[in-house]
Amino acid sequence: MMNTNVHLHTFEANTALVEALAQKIAVNLQDAIAARGHATLIVSGGSTPKPLFKQLRKIKLSWEKVTVGLCDERWVDPSHPDSNEQFVKTFLLQDEAAKATFSGMYIGGIAAKEAEALCSAKIAAELFPFDVLILGMGSDAHTASLFPENPKLEKGFDLDTHTLCIAIEPHDTPHMRMSLTRRAILDAANLYLHFEGKEKLEVYEKAMNGEDMYSMPIRSILKQKKKDVEVYYA
User: Fold this and answer.
1) pLDDT tens digits, one per residue of 211-222
2) Is 188 exposed, middle or buried (0-12, 13-18, 19+ CB in 10 A)?
3) Distance between CA atoms of 132 and 230, rounded to whole angstroms?
4) Residues 6+ apart with CB under 8 A from 53
5) Which of 75, 104, 139, 217 is the most exposed place for a label (fewest CB within 10 A)?
């Protein structure tokens, strides 16, 4: 049975999706600025959000009052080609969005496993609470850097923790990761899941029709009653 708090928006073309989602995000950000004087936007890396970033960065809004952060990061220097920070600065923080402030996860000179508390404190001070958070989803059903069957998932899924960040060692991809915890993700005021293609749709449908969060971490976001999730698919 489908969760009533998960709302699926389907588009025939990616161009229509990114236009609709970019406009929705811009409204969320402007509403937060009107209410509090500033807004926070949390984004994901990977190839999927690149067209969305290119659309979003053209929209005129009070970007100088927006701080942008990450759902997760590879624990590499921002100059590294695998860095999500570099990706976001290259594809989002351009044009109108060049006026936004960026607050990254990576902290130089310290291992990821020793940086959880520092990273959590940095995000709490500079980004939290989140106004808009955009998740992606891998073909293995990971989201952020919450990977299937990872030994850190129990800690990462704990909704009673005050930890916003968790260090994750992936089984089969390079680089240690720092990821937002499930608690941090579900505290976002506006939560979006964005994916594309038939393969990802099959992953999504399988996730919605099962319960085991450890085999499919995206279920920890979809199969909960705390927060509405707006799903955008093309």
Assistant:
1) 999 999 999 999
2) buried
3) 11
4) 43, 88, 91, 92
5) 139
pLDDT-above-90 percentage for the chain: 94
Number of domains in the chain: 1
Q: What would the pLDDT profile of 112-167 be if each residue is shown by its tens digit?
A: 999 999 999 999 999 999 999 999 999 999 999 999 999 999 999 999 999 999 99
Residues 6+ positions from 225 with CB-CB distance below 8 Å: 3, 5
49 domain-assigned: yes
Q: Hey, what are 103's tokens?
A: 């607050």
Choose among 80, 211, 76: nearest CA to 145: 76
Alpha-carbon distance of 214 to 149, in angstroms, equals 5
Helices and strands of the chain, counted as H and E runs? 8, 10
**Domain harbouring 83, CATH code:** 3.40.50.1360
In a domain, 198, yes or no: yes
Coil/strand/helix, residue 192:
strand
Per cent of the chain over pLDDT 70 is 98
- Interval 26-34 mean pLDDT: 98
| 205 falls within a domain | yes
Q: Which residues contact 26 (CB under 8 A, 6 or more apart)?
A: 56, 59, 61
Is residue 181 within 8 A of residue 166, CB to CB? The reply is: yes
Is there a contact between 164 and 123 (Cβ–Cβ < 8 Å)? yes
The reported pTM is 0.96
Is residue 115 included in any domain, yes or no?
A: yes
